[in-house]
Write a structure and sequence with these properties.
heterodimer, A: 110 residues, three-stranded antiparallel β-sheet, elongated, B: 401 residues, alpha+beta
Chain lengths: 110, 401
């Protein structure tokens, strides 16, 4: 009984266990360095070798008219194969994991 | 209303109780047709296939790199086991030997996965016996392992650790230290879970429930902790060592129990958690140096895999996982066959449930740690009767092999 009460009081004084999630704009829950989030694409560095299309398991990458690629993030499985195969390191998987948008267009990385 | 009551007479000899596919006790869809006599289970019929996804057929339309990420998605808990098994088969066909360090890292992630799978299962078992506090506690402990996955590989569930001939992510000194620290924390928490599971109430709820004797376990080809709980000393890691298990043979032992009930299966998993933690510490201490992957792109590795076939098996957290792979020599797959551990164990359920009570069904079903989405990969089609067999016949015409 006494032990239980002591534990209850200690729990009252302790900080909450939960992690604060986006209470202020721009404040993100920290992610590890290797975290695979939304794709970032450096169009200038891309040479249009299309190796990423060949190895993408979900068919999320398509070609554009100017011989570059675009990424449909809503199809992406975040395996990171495109970032790994890219010879110019033009594709990276960033730390952004908030992937809710009103229009699909917002989830296409060009 | 009048006070008149009418006695209704039922024939209790064979009442059918449908159990699933949507049931509060089981989170995954499976249908049991349970024949009962009052509270006693007389017979059980099993029906699978509610979440069949056609992954094997889909894999045949892709190249090896794409298929590697696809087979990872067969299971959300033992995803690394599936890629290790698949890549193991490809390496056997292509005669590619990964470096020593790559094998150790593969084994490390494999054992971390076993740890998180067993902790998850202990939570589910606690939930099934009505002990939700322990469920929360086990899941909280598992969270530490998932954080390690996120740190090492970048994703909590689908790690994408393997490539043909190596692994993708390396461990630096800081991470080795962090894994070691987490392991001592997990060990403490697991010890507490073990103490709770050794309590008299838990023991009385689980012992004598879902009996599967040694002979039946052997005859029904059960695998993994289910077989080991029935006294069968079987473990692919010892019998057919893959990855770095050959070198680590001395650092773990097979846990067996002879009782063959739900409590024995629980005990086997609890003690396997400690074996696994010991093994992870051993791997961290013995981690050899060197490169982790071949110095060529994965497309070149893929093209080096010739035409051929191989069978590969690993000890997933739930038991023996088996892959049959046939490549076409052009970077594609001609046939992929997956035999998941639950498919081998689920036939034992009938034996376990018969003679038991209706109230024991959730506990017994949970005690084999079923992963039903992985199991839903067979479609029984009677070709002679036509109907549903037509699509399959068309496929057969397309690929005569």
């Amino acid at each position: 009984m006494g032990r239980g009460l002591r534990a209850a009081f200690r729990a009252l004084l302790r900080k909450p266990v939960r992690v604060r999630y986006l209470t202020e704009a721009g404040e993100m829950v920290p992610v590890p360095e290797r975290y695979r989030g939304k794709i970032t694409y450096d169009k200038g560095a891309c040479i249009g070798c299309l190796l990423c299309i060949r190895t993408c398991p979900s068919g999320a990458i398509s070609t554009t008219e100017e011989k570059k690629v675009e990424f449909s993030v809503f199809k992406c499985t975040f395996c990171g194969q495109c970032a790994e195969i890219c010879p110019k390191k033009a594709v990276k998987l960033g730390s952004d994991f908030e992937l809710v948008v009103y229009e699909k267009e917002g989830m296409v990385v060009r | 209303m009048t006070g008149e009551t009418r006695e209704l007479e039922y024939d209790y000899s064979r009442l059918v109780v449908p159990f699933g596919p949507v049931h509060p006790a089981l989170k995954e869809p499976v249908h049991f047709k349970v024949f009962v006599k009052k509270e006693e289970v007389v017979d059980v019929g099993l029906r699978l296939g509610h979440v069949h996804r056609g992954i094997e057929a889909l894999a045949e339309t892709r190249n090896l790199v794409q298929a590697m990420y696809l087979v990872e998605r067969v299971c959300g808990i033992c995803s690394h086991s599936h890629t290790t098994c698949f890549v193991g088969a490809l390496e056997e066909i292509g005669r590619i030997q990964p470096s020593e360090r790559a094998l150790y890292l593969r084994t490390l992630v494999f054992e971390l996965e076993r740890l998180h799978s067993h902790l998850l299962w202990l939570g589910i078992m606690a939930y099934e016996i009505g002990f939700d506090t322990l469920f929360m506690f086990a899941f909280n402990t598992r969270e530490a392992v998932l954080d390690l996955f996120e740190e090492i590989t970048g994703n909590r569930v689908h790690h994408s650790m393997n490539v043909i001939g190596g692994v993708r992510w390396d461990l630096d000194g800081r991470m080795v230290e962090k894994v070691g620290r987490s392991m001592s924390k997990v060990r403490e928490a697991a010890q507490r879970i073990r103490e709770i599971f050794q309590d008299k109430t838990v023991e009385e709820r689980l012992s004598g429930v879902g009996l599967l004797d040694r002979g039946a376990a052997q005859e029904l080809c059960t695998v993994g902790p289910t077989a080991r709980g029935s006294g069968l000393k079987t473990d692919v890691r010892k019998e057919d060592p893959y990855a770095a298990y050959g070198a680590l043979e001395g650092s773990f032992s097979i846990v067996t129990r002879t009782e063959g009930d739900a409590y024995a299966r629980t005990e086997v998993r609890i003690f396997e958690i400690f074996e696994t933690i010991n093994m992870i510490n051993e791997i961290l201490a013995r981690l050899p140096g060197g490169s982790i992957r071949p110095g060529e792109t994965i497309i070149r590795s893929m093209n080096r895999v010739p035409q051929g076939e191989a069978v590969s098996r690993v000890e997933a957290p739930r038991g023996e996982l088996l892959y049959y792979v046939r490549t076409d020599g052009k970077g594609g797959l001609r046939r992929l066959k997956v035999r998941t551990p639950t498919l081998a164990n689920i036939v034992g359920l009938r034996q376990m449930l018969i003679g038991g009570e209706v109230a024991d069904i959730p506990v017994v079903v949970a005690s084999i740690d079923p992963c039903l989405s992985c199991t839903n990969r067979i479609t029984v089609i009677d070709l002679d009767k036509g109907g549903a067999g037509e699509p399959l016949r068309r496929r057969r015409r397309k690929w005569p092999h």
